[in-house]
Design a protein that fits this description.
Elements: E1 5-8, H1 14-25, E2 29-34, H2 38-50, E3 54-59, H3 65-78, E4 84-87, H4 102-130, E5 133-138, H5 142-145, H6 151-171, E6 176-183, H7 189-192, H8 196-203, H9 214-225, E7 236-239
Parallel strand pairs: 1-2, 1-4, 2-3, 4-5, 5-6, 6-7
The chain binds NADP nicotinamide-adenine-dinucleotide phosphate.
NADP nicotinamide-adenine-dinucleotide phosphate binds next to helix 1, strand 2 and helix 7.
Length: about 240
């Protein structure tokens, strides 16, 4: 594939960094978005460059419409239109339903779902013009199977699946595919925050007997972005080592 402009939201850490590095190793031009951790985003950019790709970093809250518009204008000016969009940015604000505050609900829906609408819409204009594009969103097995304490998160991740199926039907005839990768339990800052007890007992419920690594999600995203996946759209690829079986 010719070098493409790839935007990875939340590319500064964890799964997003692995996705950015993966595209960098294929020689693509990678834009690394982040919320506040500019130093971590620069480390991701260095990894992209070390792999042979081009990189730029850009801070923007992907749940904020004005910030997303400004981000896409800056990318268009410096790199050109986004050809591969990876909606990866995400947060958790877990709590059991009776304790969940409306702020916890709103923050998760804005960062994990509203962002997917905002970024996909902004990227679509250029993709429609080019008659080619890839939109890949990072969902979660929580959005398929549910998870106690994650009603906000599971609602956002399930929303991404319905969103992607609908958009896939709208733009499939224009050379644009829209898919979801749904990870299980992956070793990143997000899961480290749960503590050793939770992560080691989670491994007991995973068929392959261990947590996943960010690279194992990145390779699935890379596949869906490739020409080999040109006839796959509206799908959710579960990458969870058998957790949700
Ligand atoms: P992580 O290590 O906590 O990293 C989160 C990333 O999202 C960071 O780059 C962060 O930027 C960025 N971010 C957060 N809020 C943002 C906002 N408002 N605007 C822009 N960027 C924002 O998370 P992760 O584990 O890699 O998760 C990545 C994705 O995979 C998420 O969508 C998550 O829901 C999903 N996922 C993860 C797992 C897992 O087990 N880890 C499982 C299923 C799904 P800063 O560095 O600036 O904070």
């Amino acid at each position: 594939m010719e070098p493409k402009v790839v935007l990875v939201t939340g590319g500064s850490r964890g799964i997003g960094r692995a996705i950015a590095s993966h595209f960098g190793s294929l020689g693509h031009r990678v834009v690394i978005n982040y919320a506040s951790n500019a130093a971590a985003a620069e480390e991701s950019a260095a990894a992209v460059r070390a792999g042979g790709g081009e990189a730029m970093t850009i801070g923007a809250d992907v749940g904020d419409a004005a910030a997303v518009d400004a981000m896409f204008s800056e990318i268009a000016e410096k790199m050109g239109p986004v050809e591969i969009l990876v909606n990866n940015a995400g947060i958790t604000r877990d709590d059991l339903m009776l304790r969940m505050k409306v702020e916890q609900w709103d923050e998760v829906i804005a960062t994990n779902l509203r962002s997917v609408y905002l970024c996909s819409k902004a990227a679509l204009r250029g993709m429609l013009r080019a008659k080619w594009g890839r939109i890949i969103s990072v969902g979660s097995v929580s959005g398929i199977a549910g998870n106690p304490g994650q009603a906000n998160y599971a609602a956002a991740k399930a929303g991404i699946i319905g969103f992607s199926k609908s958009l896939a039907k709208e733009v499939g005839s224009r050379g644009i595919t829209v898919n979801v990768v749904a990870p299980g339990f992956i070793e990143t800052d997000m899961t480290a925050a749960l503590g050793e007890d939770v992560t080691s007992s989670a491994a007991g419920n995973i068929a392959v007997g261990r947590l996943g690594q960010p690279d194992e999600i990145a390779s699935a995203v890379g596949y869906l972005a490739s020409e080999n996946a040109s006839y796959i759209t509206g799908q959710t690829l579960v990458v969870d080592g058998g957790l949700a079986l």
